[in-house]
Amino acid sequence: MKINKHLTIASLALLSTLFISSCEKDDDGQVSNNTGNATVKFNLTDAPASYDAVYIDVLEVKVHVSNSGDTSNADGWITLPNTRPGIYNLLDFQNGIDTLIASGDVPAGKVSQIRLILGPQNSVVVNGVSEPLKTPSAQQSGLKLKVNYTLQAGIVYEFWLDFDASRSIVAKGNGGYNLKPIIRVFTKNTTGSIDGYVSPIAAFSSVLAYNAAGDSAAALTNPVSGYFLISGLDPASYTVEFDPISPYMTTDTMGVNVATGIVTHLDTIRIN
User: Fold this and answer.
1) Rg (CA), the chain
2) E-assigned strands of 24-167?
3) What is d(CA 12, CA 72) in angstroms, rounded to the nearest whole number?
4) Is the separation of the CB atoms in 229 and 243 below 8 Å?
5) Which bin fits 239, alpha (ψ -120 to 50), beta or left (φ > 0)?
6) Bridge-partner residues for 241, per DSSP?
7) Which fold has domain 1-10+190-272?
8) Pair type for strands 37-47 and 99-107
9) d(CA 162, CA 112)
10) Which of 15, 36, 171, 267 is least enclosed by beta carbons within 10 angstroms?
């Protein structure tokens, strides 16, 4: 399977900040509520990868909330009570398919980090052969994902952890593989999406959206329908590049505008 050369571009743009503080006016002059609890939900989704399967062993999800006024939790880390531990195949969650892995109520305040704790049962299947993935740091303290988002009491916030399986798996020189996760965190409150279809389906194209600021995200077309969806894009004008398998030819679509909370639909892309 051919993967777009641009997939090595860093795709780590995180969440936009909402300046909200307890009993103070924000930039719009509105009084914000920063007392009580908010509800958070975390979904797992995946960017494309040229493997048969990529399994990750999810144990726990924590969030770091500050300025909450909760003196009983001095370090700010809160373990989400409704975590769904298990071994997930990342390649099952592409083109808008995701799965809820954790949720719970947390004190209102600023979320600065998310911690994803993995177990030892991580593996990659390459050409039908299963290989273990070494993840020492994840097993010990968890993968720390920096975000910058402020939670208001009484509101439900939903986040997506876009696990870039292709760039997260590193082949070792002496054989075997390491897992060095690259995860993009986004919420649909502050981002938009691009979707469409590629014809012919046999082109099995990788799809990359990138803007002038260097932000990028990718997808693979569905092998049955040719459909693709790229989510979590900051509002901007994007170039969308379609890179199919041989002998089909690469093609670009420029000036695709993405707006907050909107799915921008492209006409069917026909590849020669």
Assistant:
1) 20
2) 37-47, 53-66, 77-79, 86-89, 99-107, 109-118, 123-126, 129-134, 143-151, 156-164
3) 33
4) no
5) beta
6) 208, 252
7) Immunoglobulin-like (2.60.40)
8) antiparallel
9) 18
10) 267
* Distance in angstroms (rounded) separating the CA atoms of residues 222 and 173: 33
Helix, strand, coil percentages, rounded to 5, for the chain: 5, 50, 40
What is the domain partition of the chain in residue ranges?
1-10+190-272, 17-187
Token duo for residue 168: 């997260």
Q: What is the pLDDT of residues 208-262, one digit of tens each?
A: 999 999 989 988 899 899 999 999 999 999 999 999 999 999 999 999 999 999 9
Residues 6+ apart with CB under 8 A from 176: 131, 132, 134
Strands 143-151 and 156-164: unpaired
Mind listing the pLDDT tens digit for each residue in 34-54? 568 999 999 999 877 788 999
Half-sphere exposure of 172 (CA within 13 A, CB side): 12
Amino acid at 99: T
Residue 138: name the closest of 119, 163, 162, 123 by CA.
119
| Structure tokens belonging to residue 106 | 């947390």
Parallel/antiparallel/unpaired status of strands 227-233 and 236-243: unpaired
Is 219:48 a contact under the CB 8 Å cutoff? Answer: yes
Q: CA–CA separation, 18 vs 26, rounded Å?
A: 9
Within a 10 A sphere around the Cβ of 233, how many other Cβ atoms? 24
Question: Tokens representing 235?
Answer: 């509002």
Spell out the SS3 assignment of 195-242: EEEEECHHHCCEEEEEECCCCEEEEECCCCCCEEEEEEECCEEEEEEE
Could you tell me which residues come within 8 angstroms of residue 72 by beta carbon, excluding any fewer than 6 positions away? Answer: none
Tokens at 49, concatenated = 């990868």
Check residue 31 and give its pLDDT: 39
Give the tokens for residue 5.
Answer: 């050369």
3-state secondary structure of 192: strand
